[in-house]
Write a structure and sequence with these properties.
The structure is a single chain. It contains 7 helices and 6 strands. The radius of gyration is 16 Å and the shape is globular. Helix 5 links the parallel strand 4 and strand 5. It is an alpha/beta fold. The protein has a 6-stranded parallel beta sheet, sandwiched between helices. It starts with a helix and ends with a helix.
């Protein structure tokens, strides 16, 4: 039964996206702008994964190429068509959720794509790098720099 379910998931994901080059996991306040930027600025082949049904329905109506799934579920990673995938952006602000996604990804026998994630603080950055994340964006650090720069540098 579980095998049939996985095969159905693989087929559904592949039909919806084919082998996307970029994936954004989490389509909230960080994920949606990430997705839009990659598509609009670079014209990249991007798919998005979102857990919350309401958000999936809203964003789908807006034309977002979206798949409803739980990126923190190992079955998702075992089932998704990851051929051609180059980068996964884990755009989830809750640090424990980011950890759960990374643990779920660990079921892959070999990870052939790079992973970018967000962290609030330096100690979280270090932990994520230790878990195999290739790039960590500490947005509170950047927020502080931007806050100072925007005030001091005229527009």
């Amino acid at each position: 039964l579980r095998r049939l379910h996985r095969e159905e998931l693989v087929q559904e994901f592949a039909q919806k996206f084919g082998p996307a080059r970029f994936m954004v996991a989490g389509m909230g306040t960080v994920g949606l702008p990430t997705y839009q930027y990659l598509r609009e600025q670079y014209g990249l082949d991007v798919c998005a994964v979102e857990f919350h049904t309401e958000r999936v329905e809203t964003l789908s109506k807006q034309g977002v190429q979206l798949y409803q799934a739980d990126a923190a579920d190992p079955v998702f990673w075992e089932s998704a068509d990851l051929r051609g995938l180059e980068v996964v952006y884990i755009a989830i602000s809750d640090f424990e959720s980011v950890r759960q996604v990374l643990r779920a990804m660990s079921v892959l026998p070999e990870r052939t794509f790079r992973v970018a994630a967000i962290a609030h603080y330096e100690d979280q950055r270090d932990e994520l790098l230790g878990m195999g994340v290739d790039f960590v964006y500490c947005y509170k650090d950047e927020l502080g720099r931007s806050f100072a720069r925007e005030f001091l540098e005229p527009a």
